[in-house]
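Extended Data, panel c. Modelled sequence:
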Amino acid sequence: MKLILIRHAEAGSRDEFQETGKPDSLRPITARGGQKFEKMVTALEKLGIEINVIGTSPYARTYQTAQLVADKYRSAKIEK
């Protein structure tokens, strides 16, 4: 078994999001962060890295990032 740790894609500004009054756990990734992350996942795929399970916290930005991985690795299951 191999374990790969991936940090979430670039998220929006913590300070700006705080002004919405919503909890930080709902702060999403940015469009730019998503695009950059998709390139990274494509690189993993080209390297032949296999991903079967994607573990994520319930935070919005981590789940969104996990979903980007799952979009490429269709057989991978996301687990919160």
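Strands lie at 53-55, 77-79. This feature is highlighted in the accompanying rendering.
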